[in-house]
Amino acid sequence: MAKVVMYCTAVCPYCVAAERLLKSRGVTDIEKIRIDLDPAKQEEMMTRSGGRRTVPQVFIGDTHVGGFDDTSALDAAGGLVPLLNRD
Fold this sequence. Notes:
By secondary structure, the chain is α+β, with helices and mostly antiparallel strands.
């Protein structure tokens, strides 16, 4: 399974929803990077995501998926599981 990284904050219902969706698709390990604990990580997130400021920002392998809405839309289109199953 591809590595999953999610930039998030402590209090974020969309982060919880994204994590729930990923786990429902078989993801057992999500590397969570808390941008509320380290301001430098917010800059890192913005650089990696093309300037996005909102959380969550989900990365699967080297692919930036986006926020919860983007992740959910990818799943609805049938693209999430194949992306997760790439190594």
